[in-house]
Design brief:
Elements lengths: L1 H22 L14 H25 L10 H35 L1 H4 L2 H4 L4 H8 L1 H12 L8 H25 L1
Helix pairs in contact: 1-2, 1-7, 2-3, 3-7, 3-8
Amino acid sequence: MDTVLHACALATNAYGVFLARFRLDLGSWGFFGRYKFLTNLNQELQTAYFLLCVLIDVLGRVCACDRSESPPAWFASLRRVRNRAFFAVAFPMAIVVAVLFWGIFAMDPEAIFPASLQAVYPPGLNHIQHTLIVLFPLAEIVASRDLHESSFAGDVGVVLVVDLAYSVVVLATRVFD
């Protein structure tokens, strides 16, 4: 079940990245390009996360690491990286993107998704980037049999680093655009 969920999430997110990068022409993105938008950054991080999940699933089956009582150290390390990435970056960022987008959209659709953008932005891509982006991590929590919480202090540290890096991107965009 995990492998099917991970493969579906990877395919959907990779398709979203493809559409946003190669099929969506919104003109100049300015300084930091498309990464000044949390939606795009989140989409690519989710794609990388689910690629890691598929890699772990495949390696676990090929090496029989997922069935052994004590998996090799490298496999256990991959799982720890995956768990830390999920609880510190992938899940919180997905929640933030979905709640902010749909919350602002519910109050004032023109503020976050103007009619001029709706004319060129595929509706499917909008839902891949703002709806499915949170449904796949929620399904991961429900369906995954080996997703364990990592240390709270480590997760908070990673969240702070990611938030600080994104704040620098936003401020630099403000200064240089």
